[in-house]
Write a structure and sequence with these properties.
By secondary structure, the chain is of the alpha/beta class. Helices cover 50% and strands 8% of the residues. It starts with 15 loop residues before the first helix and ends with a helix.
């Protein structure tokens, strides 16, 4: 047996059909990144990076979690150690990351953006540091450099309803980023009525809208105004982070809202009733504007309260929850449908136990008006690796229409994450190639090529209906 070379041109492509599909159809397709957490301000200011650590470790909680698992002190991760010392600490443990997608992602990042082929080891640390920093200096590498180099056509950020969206406008005016940079509407703070800062947020929303929000109807008026504002700025996508799925129609959202604004305590059922009604109301508005609605289900966030107090949210202390979601999700989508307000919807699960729940739920609410109206979202977060991606796509193929899948997204705060689209495309092509070479699908490359190109880009372009 001839051993394959590490990460050669046919990396993860284990049959001839896969190689042809990737090279002839997938490789050069543009990227439609419809969900990410990149900073619009950083994109506009476009400051050149000073060194590889700022790009490699800046905002990448995947790398942070791996370093912590290897006993690296926090001072080398998010703390005050020098950038060189942090990079050296990463190199010191990454060589052992066998089976972790970080190993592949990191080496893809080095190859594609810095032309570095060295395998990351402590011995190579200084060589890689010097080579990468030379490229950064010579190219004046900045956020726009990495986005433009990645063949990104559309990039959708994640934005709060009270955001002015000033940086999106400034990015368009500056014209330094080839991709269309658009906002996405993320109203978690106005839905999460149980949070201690909810009343302060409602006051802030009222200030932005020039009104004093005194009751639930005025809240909906204000948020609809912000949706229109986002729509005029090019937004065509909303996003909701749901832990479990809230469904309760036994309490009035008006009464629950009034209790909260008066400082009264709310029961779990009252909280769910408010969230449920608000989601139904928002979905109606999204549907009227032909937006897509994303529901991210199943995260258990900020588990380490000591580190949350020290570092805040989104720094790598979240995990997978195990809620029962099927009945409540069905009821919520049905309530939206009965309200003539079920928009195009993408369902994500962080717990792979629910892959078949979501994949079968789609078929209950599809529509001839939009092929693939209901989508099973790309393998998300902890599932964003080969096994997770394959299992998500197999579930969709087994139970629905894989050919209508809107494909990969980055869901990242790192500007290097676009290599993960290549990673996804290689996995997709290898999976399809295996099916063909096993005699499970014809070697009809016209059909196969269309499926690949559609999943890589064309489906998203059609689905989100963004002018390009």
């Amino acid at each position: 047996m001839v051993m394959k070379k590490f990460m050669d041109d046919n990396f993860m492509l284990n049959n001839e059909t896969a190689t042809k599909l990737f090279n002839d159809y997938a490789k050069d397709m543009p990227i439609f990144d419809y969900h990410c957490h990149l900073s619009p301000q950083m994109m506009y200011e476009d400051k050149p990076f000073e060194n590889i650590t700022q790009i490699f470790l800046g905002g990448d909680h995947y790398k942070w979690r791996y370093m912590r698992s290897n006993g690296i002190d926090e001072s080398y991760i998010t703390g005050d150690k020098s950038d060189y010392d942090k990079f050296k600490a990463l190199c010191g443990c990454l060589q052992y990351a066998i089976g972790n997608p970080l190993y592949h992602w990191t080496h893809l990042e080095l190859k594609r953006y810095f032309n570095v082929d060295e395998v990351v080891t402590p011995e190579n640390c200084d060589t890689i540091w010097e080579k990468c920093n030379k490229v950064i200096k010579e190219t004046k590498m900045s956020p726009s450099t990495l986005i433009n180099q990645s063949n990104v056509a559309v990039l959708c950020t994640t934005d709060d309803p009270i955001d002015s969206l000033e940086y999106h406008k400034l990015i368009a005016e500056k014209g330094h980023i080839k991709a269309k940079v658009l906002p996405a509407f993320r109203p978690d703070r106005l839905i999460n009525i149980e949070k201690t800062d909810f009343t302060d947020y409602i006051k802030a929303l009222g200030n932005v809208c020039g009104m004093n929000i005194k009751n639930y109807d005025e809240l909906i008026t204000a948020v609809n105004e912000r949706i229109d504002y986002f729509h005029n700025a090019g937004c065509r996508i909303s996003d909701h982070a749901l832990d479990g799925v809230p469904f309760n129609r036994d309490y009035s959202a008006d009464d629950v809202f009034a209790k909260k604004m008066n400082g009264d305590n709310l029961s779990a059922d009252e909280i769910n009733a408010f969230k449920c009604e608000t989601l139904i109301r928002l979905a109606k508005k999204y549907s009227e504007l032909d937006w897509a609605m994303q529901l991210h289900i199943g995260a258990l966030r900020n588990n380490n309260s000591a580190m949350f107090k020290k570092l805040g949210a989104d720094v790598g202390f979240d995990s997978i929850a195990d809620y029962e979601i099927a009945a409540d999700l069905s009821a919520l989508l049905d309530a939206m449908e009965c309200n003539d307000g079920l928009p195009k919807t993408i369902l994500y699960t962080l717990n792979p136990k629910d892959n078949y729940v979501l994949a079968t739920m789609l078929g209950n609410f599809q529509s001839a008006e939009t092929a693939g109206k209901m989508q099973f979202g790309s393998a998300w977060w902890f599932n964003d690796q080969r096994d997770g991606m394959v299992e998500q796509m197999k579930a969709l193929a087994n139970l629905g229409a894989l050919n209508k899948f809107v494909g990969m997204l980055t869901d990242s705060r790192s500007f290097l994450s676009y290599t993960r689209h290549e990673y996804f495309r290689r996995i997709l092509c290898n999976m399809l190639g295996e099916w063909v070479e096993n005699g499970e699908f014809p070697d009809d490359f016209d059909t196969l090529g269309k499926i690949v190109e559609d999943i890589c880009f064309n489906n998203a372009k059609r689905y989100f209906n963004v002018e390009m």
